[in-house]
Structure formats: C-alpha cells, structure tokens
Amino acid sequence: MKRQHFLPALAIAGALILGTTACGGSIPAAETKPAQSFPANSTMDKIQKRGKVIVGVKFDQPLFGVKNPVTGKMEGLDIEMAKILAKDLTGSAENVEFVEAVTKNREAFLQQNKVDAVIASYAVTDERKKVVSFAGPYLESNVALLVRKDDSSVNKPEDLQGKTVCSTTGARAAQLIGHAVPTANVVLFSTYSECAQALKDKRVDAVTTTEAILLGVQSQNPDAYRIADGHLADAEEFAIGVAKDDAAFHDYLDQLLNKAIADGDWKKAYDATIGQVKPGDVTPPKVVL
C-alpha cells in the first residue's frame, strides 16, 4: 500500500515567510538543565561536556537549511531538528554549531568525526547505510521534478526523453532518472541552488530531487518554476545520519524523535518551516530505522 504524502507544490515566498515565523514557531531557546546523564565517553556525554552539538546541515536549501538574509540566522526543518537535539542534551536550543554539508561530503563528515550528526535533507539509501547509520526518519517525500513554469513540454518523467536533467552529486534522484528515462542527459552539481539557476538559464530542462526540497527551491522564485505532476519514486525518507557503529547515539536519537513527535516539538518545527508553504494537519512518519 502506498503511503499518503503531504507535500504538493505551492508557490509561496519561503525565505520571507521563514524570516517572519522563526521567532514564533521554532523551538524556544530557554536555558534549562539537561534531564539525563549518559555513559562516559558516549557521544551524548561528549556533547554535554563540550556544551554544544556539531551538526552538518545544508546552507542553501530553503525550508530545510538556509541562512536568513535579514537576520543572518540559520532556518529550516533540519535546523529545528538540530535545535531539538541541542536542547535535550545541553539545555539550550541555541547550543549548536552548524557546519555546511553538501550532498557529496555527508558520509565523509561522519566518518572523519567532523560532526556529531548530519541533518541535511539526508535521504536513506542502501548504499549509504553501508557506511553510516540513520535514525528516524523525521520526514517522507516523493521524488519529483521541477520545471520552468513557461515550459509545458514536461509534465511527467517520460517527457524527459532526450532532455537534460539536473541533480546533485551523490543524490539518489540522479540514479532514479537514469533508470526511468535512459535517454535523459543527467547533469550533476554540488547544490540544488546551482541546479535551479541552470534551469532558469535554460541550460537544463528539469531538476529532480524530493518534492519537499523542490518546494523550497520553487518558493524562492514562484513565478519561474512549477513542480510537474508525475513523480519518480514514493516515500523517500529523510533521517539523521550518525557514525556507522554508534548504536547508543542512534538509539538515543530514535527515542528523541519519538519524544519530539509525542510532545508536539516535531509539529512545531514542521509548522515553522514546511508548514508555512503547506499549512494544515500533517502526520509525522513512524520512527522505524
């Protein structure tokens, strides 16, 4: 049975909306004492002693991880997830160091211990699970296509035969488009903002990734882009990446996500970010990883 998803395309200026809602809807930063203690030398213990959590996030991905041009602060669903983690372990949602993690370096950052976790619209794949562990998921989204609003020739994946499609290096969507439309020419960049510019400049005919990410890209220029009706795959899961053998941290994060869902923090984070583009009731994914 296919799962129902909650991310249709709507054209709203996401960056401006995020800027006006970050204070009201995001996780509060009030100082409190962490309620838990953890085994010595565990990742949780190290974070508590350090006084901050170090998280790899995207810096240019609207609705997930982006710097507000007005306030200079990081905003997005992934940022709110990191704040939930920081508040639980350190007592303050502000005790986070954000490190830019583009698609191609997320696994390396975890393997090299440059970050405690990666929360960067990190889709779960079998290949990635060979080298890192995933906690969650905290979001699900279909794999979709972003096209120019004035281009009526692309409405479904089959329309991309002989056309050029952009994705990011290491993204699962790039592999999916190659299988679904073998005649499509796939171009890879480091970031989706580069793909969006190439689409605007007519150097490519479409951008492919999860619909949730494309909503953020579209929200930056709603008069230029639209999300096509068809999609490439169902239910791609976004999860928190951690070091492969860190079972204790993985289990802690799964418990934290379940707690955030139960006490309403997940809903507050969603409403302050993606919910500004798609308001209304939403069902969080089951934490099964």
Provide the fold topology.
Elements: H1 14-25, H2 43-50, E1 53-57, E2 60-61, E3 65-67, E4 74-75, H3 77-90, E5 96-100, H4 106-111, E6 117-118, H5 126-129, E7 132-148, E8 164-168, H6 172-180, E9 185-189, H7 192-200, E10 206-210, H8 211-220, E11 225-243, H9 247-263, H10 265-271
Parallel strand pairs: 1-5, 1-6, 8-9, 8-10
Antiparallel strand pairs: 2-3, 3-4, 7-10, 7-11
Helix pairs in contact: 3-10
Descriptive overview:
This protein has 10 helices and 11 strands. Helix content is 33%, strand content 24%. The protein has helices spanning 14-25, 43-50, 77-90, 106-111, 126-129, 172-180, 192-200, 211-220, 247-263, 265-271, and strands at 53-57, 60-61, 65-67, 74-75, 96-100, 117-118, 132-148, 164-168, 185-189, 206-210, 225-243. Helix 6 (172-180) links the parallel strand 8 (164-168) and strand 9. The chain has 2 domains: 14-139 and 237-276, D-Maltodextrin-Binding Protein, domain 2; 141-235, Periplasmic binding protein-like II (D-Maltodextrin-Binding Protein, domain 2), CATH 3.40.190. It is globular and about 60 Å long. The longest helix is centred in the last third of the chain and has 17 residues, at 247-263. The strands form 3 sheets. A 5-stranded mixed beta sheet has the order 9-8-10-7-11, with helices on both faces. It is an alpha/beta fold and 289 residues long.
